[in-house]
Protein: Prephenate dehydrogenase
Amino acid sequence: MTDSIVASTGVRAARTSGTVRVVGAGLLGSSIGHALRALGVDVVLADASPAQLRLAVDYGAGRAAAPDDRPALVVVAVPPDVVADVVERELRAYPGAVVTDVASVKLEPLHALRARGVDLTHYIGSHPMAGRERGGAISARADIFVGRPWVVCRDEQTPASDLALVEGLALDLGATPIEMTPEEHDRAVALVSHVPQLVASLLAGRFVDAPGDSLRLAGQGVRDTTRIAASAPELWVQILGANAAPVVEVLDALAGELGDIADALRSPDAPGARRAVADMIRRGNDGVDRLPGKHGQNRRFEQLVIMVDDTPGQLGRLFGELGELGVNVEDLRLEHSPGAQFGLAEISVAPGVVRHAEEGLLARGWKIASIPS
Structure:
């Protein structure tokens, strides 16, 4: 595992030194433990659930905490509604340590800690933009943070050495540290994380009473749109409640726009109705163009959709033959149709090589399901 983490992060020696205490042995806490241990860092784990703690230790995320541990860094990875309580406890228990948390909401815990008069000199809130639909120590992965943004919320009182410790942790785990204020962070995640979760859940909720024949028509578009709807309700109730105001602001704006489009479609032949729909779609195009892509670029690619037999080794053969053609795969999406013995691999390639890739694959016997115009 060490070699794979080093290869993916480019880290040869850990910036993080000493003992790291991770409180909360769920998905994020255990993933942090796995990644740090792969770099030779001493990781101790604590969790309110003895069973969860034993499971995380058994999987190799760290060792159980001992009374004489003296951590240099404490990472709090607990549900949002108890972050402030745990951070306060850890600051008092380990006054010589830097304490950070990885909760997805930053402002509410900070307000709670300030209201209690807690000395926050050595506390730095942070948030890795990483996760999975499944939680718990059993789902933890050492590479879950690789290439992901890791927000670090410092203030003017934050010692430079403390900031370096938290940013070093993010870098050790292969993430990209980004400094933001708690207010900036919470507004940002409301837009790019919390509201998308609600939209996905609301749309997927429409499937509950939908006819089975309708759902058989579902393709990759609706699967992409609703993938995160599989997330845990208990966690999201806490996240959304803690970041309610910024989420409501985005939802109100979105609701107004949905109402406008619904009004336009009630009378699609009315003057301006078609333009309203077209403008909405175009604005979505413009928004997607602003999303950072590979290597942070806003670069457009073209797609080839290739039929791949559902047998072992076929996808590997496809990649191998694209490599022989000198074609780099910029992105990949897979779709399986119900009952079909093949999948559709949508390969994104640079526009300048799409025809070369198409001709080379056809010559090698691959079937192109769609050919760009």
About this structure: Residues 219 and 335 are 7 Å apart (CA to CA). The two ends are 44 Å apart (CA to CA).
